[in-house]
């Protein structure tokens, strides 16, 4: 058991009020009352199956972070979240400083709910804003208004939350640089500890893929990107990952564990997990449809093919400004350091990474053209 590798827990809540046209996550429109009690029971049964499948000792490893994502976890009542957290505290070894995040969408929360989540043990919120423009909120299929974003943020503050992330998109349909910067400045003015600022991409199996909107051209996207970085930096938000910006010491602990190729349990419909065992690194996936999950919590456990390990590792670690160390590469992948050689030669020549002693970091060019960089690691 790799007890020296950090361990997190991801919990997926698959229901939303409405499916957004850009969303390719495992989310389903809620129809009628949610089966909250049954779903919480299913999550805990799922957890027990995972703990049994990965061998003795995993339940004693320290859980450094918990992330409740979706879907829209804030559709669930504080009482349901409290019930879940109570059992997690008993069954798992939650670290004293465990970061516990819940995703919340404006329009599904209020002061009373935030107060209940805080009492349940949630200590970080991630609020799905996406835009402050009424036009773009409508195009994106969001159910909230810009005013409801502000109301939700201050309600969370009043409920005692001192660690809040705002999710914000740029490169929206027909968006110009001025509109993108207005969105970003509106988020900054609220004063969150963390901002996730990422470009809209059209993914398969979405409404936008079937009926593509008119997105900004490359020159406009580049201007938005450059001016946005300057704006965030001037406001005191340090970029530590491709689309993540944080105030001092407010980086997302849970996401950092993903990007550093740490271990994580994944429970819930469509959840994924990754666990390092003495002889293999295991990827777990759960059945996607909520009805199927409620019936059986089916799981698939499969060892990651060593041929795929290099790319999987680089896809995560090269998202971060700090990159990774050669020694961490070997520890986390079980591959020799020499497995990096061909990739590094090609990436250095193209000025997409720098190598200094034990540390490999992406350059600004590497971060901007990450997909191109990762192609250098494909056979």
Write the layout of secondary structure elements.
Blueprint: E1 7-13, E2 15-16, E3 28-29, H1 36-53, E4 62-70, H2 78-91, E5 93-104, H3 111-120, E6 124-130, H4 134-139, H5 146-158, E7 164-170, H6 177-190, E8 194-199, H7 207-210, H8 218-234, E9 238-241, E10 244-246, H9 253-259, E11 263-267, E12 272-277, E13 280-286, H10 290-296, E14 299-303, H11 306-317, E15 324-325, H12 326-333, H13 341-349, E16 353-356, E17 359-362, H14 364-368, H15 370-375
Parallel strand pairs: 1-4, 1-11, 2-3, 4-5, 5-6, 6-7, 7-8
Antiparallel strand pairs: 8-10, 9-10, 12-13, 13-14, 15-17, 16-17
Explained architecture:
- The chain is α/β, with parallel strands linked by helices.
- It has two domains: 7-257, TIM Barrel, CATH 3.20.20; 306-379, Orthogonal Bundle (Arc Repressor Mutant, subunit A), CATH 1.10.10.
- 40% of the residues lie in helices and 24% in strands.
- It contains 15 helices and 17 strands.
- The strands form four sheets. It has a nine-stranded mixed β-sheet, with helices on both faces. A three-stranded antiparallel β-sheet has the order 12-13-14, with no helix packed on it. The protein has a three-stranded antiparallel β-sheet with strand order 15-17-16.
- The protein starts with 6 loop residues before the first strand and ends with a helix.
Give a short summary of the structure.
This protein has 379 residues and is of the alpha/beta class. The protein is built from 15 helices and 17 strands.
Instruction: Give the name of the CATH superfamily of the largest domain.
Output: Aldolase class I
CATH class of the largest domain: Alpha Beta
Low-confidence region ranges: none
Number-wise, the strands total 17
Instruction: Find the CATH topology of the largest domain.
Output: TIM Barrel
Summarize the main sheet: 9 strands, mixed
Instruction: Using the CA coordinates, give the radius of gyration.
Output: 21 Å
Number of domains: 2
Mean pLDDT over the residues: 95
Give the strand order, joined by hyphens, for the main sheet: 9-10-8-7-6-5-4-1-11
CATH architecture of the largest domain: Alpha-Beta Barrel
How would you classify the helix and strand content by structural class?
Answer: alpha/beta
How many DSSP H or I helices?
15
| Beta strand % | 15-25%
Which bin fits the share of residues in helices? 25-40%
The backbone outline, from C-alpha atoms, is globular
Distance between the termini: 31 Å
């Amino acid at each position: 058991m790799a007890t020296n590798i950090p361990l997190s827990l991801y919990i997926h809540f698959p229901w939303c009020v409405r499916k957004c046209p850009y969303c390719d996550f495992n989310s389903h429109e809620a129809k009628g009352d949610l089966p909250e009690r049954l779903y919480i029971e299913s999550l805990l049964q799922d957890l027990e199956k995972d703990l049994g499948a990965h061998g003795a000792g995993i339940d004693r490893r320290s859980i450094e972070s918990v992330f409740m994502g979706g879907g829209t976890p804030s559709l669930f009542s504080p009482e349901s979240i409290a019930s879940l957290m109570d059992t997690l505290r008993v069954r798992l070894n939650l670290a004293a400083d465990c970061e516990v995040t819940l995703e919340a969408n404006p329009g599904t929360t209020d002061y009373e709910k935030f107060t209940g989540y805080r009492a349940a043990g949630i200590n970080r919120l991630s609020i799905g804003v996406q835009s402050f423009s009424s036009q773009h909120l409508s195009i994106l299929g969001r159910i909230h208004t810009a005013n409801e974003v502000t109301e939700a943020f201050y309600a969370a503050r009043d409920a005692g939350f001192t660690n809040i992330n705002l999710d914000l998109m740029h490169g929206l349909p027909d968006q110009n640089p001025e509109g993108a910067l207005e969105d970003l400045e509106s988020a900054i003015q609220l004063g969150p500890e963390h901002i996730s600022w990422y470009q809209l991409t059209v993914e398969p199996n979405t409404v936008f893929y079937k009926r593509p909107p008119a997105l900004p051209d490359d020159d406009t996207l580049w201007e938005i990107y450059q001016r946005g970085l300057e704006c965030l930096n001037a406001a005191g938000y340090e970029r530590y990952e491709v689309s993540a910006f944080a105030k001092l010491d407010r980086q997302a602990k849970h996401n950092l564990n993903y990007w550093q190729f740490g271990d994580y349990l994944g429970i819930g419909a469509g959840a994924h997990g990754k666990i390092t065992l003495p002889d293999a690194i295991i990827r777990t996936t759960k059945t996607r449809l909520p009805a199927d999950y409620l019936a059986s919590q089916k799981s698939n456990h499969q060892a990651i093919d060593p041929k795929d390990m290099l790319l999987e590792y680089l896809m995560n670690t090269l998202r971060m400004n700090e990159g990774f160390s050669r020694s961490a590469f070997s520890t986390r992948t079980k591959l020799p350091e020499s497995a990096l050689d061909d990739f590094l030669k090609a990436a250095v020549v193209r000025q997409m990474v720098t190598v200094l002693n034990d540390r490999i970091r992406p350059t600004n060019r590497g971060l901007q053209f990450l997909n191109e960089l990762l192609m250098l690691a494909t056979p």
